[in-house]
Amino acid sequence: MQRIFSGIQPSGVPQLGNYLGAIRNWVNLQADHECVFCLVDMHAITVWQEPAKLREHTLTQAAILLASGIDAQRHILFNQSAVSAHARLAWIFNCVARLGWLNRMTQFKDKAGKDRENHSAGLYVYPNLMAADILAYKATRVPVGEDQKQHLELTNDIAQKFNHDYGVEFFPQVEALIPPEAARVMSLRDGTKKMSKSDPSAQSRIELTDDADTIALKIRRAKTDTGVLPEDPSGLADRPEARNLVSIYAALSGKTVQQVLDLHQGQGFGPFKAALTEVVVNEIAPIALKTSQLLQDETHLVQMLHNGAQRAQAIAEPIVAEAEKLVGFVKPL
Ligand code: TYM
């Protein structure tokens, strides 16, 4: 059975893009994989997080993942900082990855913008920690949204260079599992920007804790053009907002974009938004309700994460200890 690793940053409340790009896939992959899911709190602090908020978001995310169908008994769910193997391997990878490789990372360029000098060193080496997350478990399959593809290519470059430098076939190559529809969900306010849990405007995203009324309001206010839905996907080419809403509908209803257009072509956005609201509410509202129930028992959530961390540690520790030995670090005999 192949091992899956994936992570999500507790830097806010997960949104529909996280769900369609990653979480929903995680839930389905549990049937025939050994899964390790991680709340990457060390990645989150590469940009400033209020300590109380970081803690709150970590527990909320744990609850959301359970409510979405992650099985923390059969699989592993934990927070990154609780397993020190991640930081140790990340340091080795900081010394394997080349500056030129990191300079090409588009996510760093997007996040740092023009004000590069004022961002943390952690943000720059973020992809090395991500490679360490995955390879500390020798995971081979990584379900993510499209925005993480470049980081996974870098992970493979790091694994290859490590193996080459130390003359061993130690780390495997990893495969990105990217969903066919809605691999990149866009903001509801601007169809050229990715939907993000850290966007200052809560109107730009559907959060997985939103109730039915909030979801309906956000979709009603979502930016659109004045046209109608076209006959085929080519009619969405330069209409980013329309394309985004249609692909959200497609992903949630298990249809292709063409099938959605077959059903709704010629319609204006009024009726289409009403239909979209229904499919979003059907999927998200039960998760939001279950999440609020799970959040009543914080002790249980903390205990569940602690238990996950111990099981994660049992897998990662021997792998990272072996990597340290290969590097030449003196270890107890
Ligand atoms: P994060 O928290 O930014 O995103 C978590 C997952 O959600 C996906 N995603 C999206 N998918 C579609 N449309 C969107 N608008 C959208 N926004 C986010 C992301 O692709 C991701 O799969 N760097 C990772 C966290 C991480 C990780 C790892 C992932 C740390 N270590 C190891 C995999 C393996 C991230 O982007 O988190």
From TrEMBL:
L-tryptophan binds at D133. Keywords: Aminoacyl-tRNA synthetase, ATP-binding, Cytoplasm, Ligase, Nucleotide-binding, Protein biosynthesis. The lineage of its organism: Bacteria, Pseudomonadati, Pseudomonadota, Alphaproteobacteria, Acetobacterales. GO terms for biological process: tryptophanyl-tRNA aminoacylation. HAMAP family: Trp_tRNA_synth_B (MF_00140_B). Belongs to the class-I aminoacyl-tRNA synthetase family. Homodimer. Its EC number is 6.1.1.2. This is Tryptophan--tRNA ligase. It is an enzyme of class 6 (ligase). Catalyzes the attachment of tryptophan to tRNA(Trp). One of its GO terms (cellular component) is cytosol. SUPFAM superfamilies: Nucleotidylyl transferase. ATP binds at Q9, P10, S11, G17, N18, G145, E146, D147, V185, K194, M195, S196, K197, S198. CDD domains: TrpRS_core. Transmembrane segments: none annotated. Its main location: cytoplasm. It is found in: Cytoplasm. It comes from Acetobacter fabarum. It comes from the Bacteria. GO terms for molecular function: ATP binding; tryptophan-tRNA ligase activity. It catalyses: tRNA(Trp) + L-tryptophan + ATP = L-tryptophyl-tRNA(Trp) + AMP + diphosphate + H(+). A motif ('KMSKS' region) lies at residues 194-198. Pfam families: tRNA-synt_1b (PF00579). The keyword Membrane does not apply.
